[in-house]
Description:
Blueprint: H1 3-10, H2 17-34, H3 44-54, H4 58-77, H5 102-113, H6 122-132, H7 136-141, E1 147-148, E2 153-155, E3 170-172, H8 175-186, E4 196-197, E5 200-201, H9 206-216
Antiparallel strand pairs: 1-2, 2-3, 4-5
Helix pairs in contact: 1-4, 2-4, 3-9, 5-6, 5-9, 6-8
Amino acid sequence: MGAPIYAQEHGPELASDAARATLSYNIAALRHWWSGKTVQEISPETCKAYALARQRTPGTIQRELSVLSAAMGHAVTMERLEARRPMWAPAKGAGRERWLDRAEAARLLRAARSEPQARMHLPLFILLGLYGGARPGAILELNWDQVDLERGRIDWNPEGKARTKKGRARTPIPRRLMTFLRLAERRGWPTGPVVHRDGQSLASVKKSFARACAAASVAWM
């Protein structure tokens, strides 16, 4: 990647220390993921995979990828590169979340079931997000004592946590999600976390989720 060279050659031209520091930060973020990849590997698909791995706001991703684009433009100007590679970036003002259509959801679930280390818990995590509308943290903190399969509802507020006006809600369990929750309950561990690995709670599923999204060609911001 030519981004570090771009920083060395373009950085001194920037008007302020703050601008140079911002450029350095963006390039450090880019290098963490793109290191070891060639310019020829830059594509809309790899840009989406980068965005999923970064788990940052669309604005942050857009700024970082704009630096990558500028670095390619600089390389073209310096005749080190024939042409810029095609890229993708999130739209300006895009929200952090978006809804998946049925085809995307199906592809994502198939990819999740193929994740060697996560195939037993990642599909249920995704289903709770799709049908329950909850955020990742709430899903990973969800315990079976918050799930009432008889009445068909989930209380997303953990026991003992004060309920506020902006707190987590109680939601009905859609029929399709109910089917998967009953299957999960019958598989064992009817107490403790709903989404787990061998009964143990999970701090994060970011890496396995990002891999599944990339395999399914789904960009979930």
